[in-house]
TrEMBL record:
UniProt name for this protein: AMMECR1 domain-containing protein
Database matches in InterPro entries: AMMECR1, AMMECR1_dom_sf, AMMECR1_domain, AMMECR1_N
Database matches in PROSITE patterns: AMMECR1
PANTHER family listed in its UniProt record: AMME SYNDROME CANDIDATE GENE 1 PROTEIN, AMMECR1 HOMOLOG
One Pfam family linked to the record: AMMECR1
Domain AMMECR1: 1-181
Amino acid sequence: MVSANREMAVYCFDTLVAHYNCEETPPPAFDEGQHPLFVTWKKAINGTEPRLRGCIGTLEAVALKDRRFPPIQAKELPHLECTVSILTDYEVAIHYLDWEVGKHGLIIEFTDPDYNSRRSATYLPEVAAHEGWTKVETIDSLMRKAGFNGSITESLRRRVRVTRYQSTLYTMHYSDYVAYVKRIRGSPPAVNGVKPGY
């Protein structure tokens, strides 16, 4: 089983740095493969709790862009932390409550009874625990995330197909990335639009 690791987080930062410098991204220092994953960017300023800045992920071989956020700017790099989540152990749940808060991520799929259309959404394993949600609150929130605006009933919840999964995580702050690059490559990364010394 592949686990999220430091080299994956480094590669994510390398990709941003290369983008801002109009350069090609250096090759990854890990075995390439096809793994369901999410990359989450959080931003912390002046010691505040890091807040979600954006994420991109794939449950299969196609990446999904998070359009809730504007593109990350070079000047934000010193304030960013990157979390790589490799998704593993997919299982179809017996019913919508057949999962554990803090252990399982969820993919829900259901038919919108008002429009007869398929809807789906996902949350990573840490989301429900971080938000302090119960299982029912998590399912209801996922239904809203999927775009359902109608009345959520117990009958509708029971018709939701739930796939649960687990993940491995690795988180790295930009300052740790700079230290790593300096130690491994001999000098810190230079980034257009970022003051030297970060």
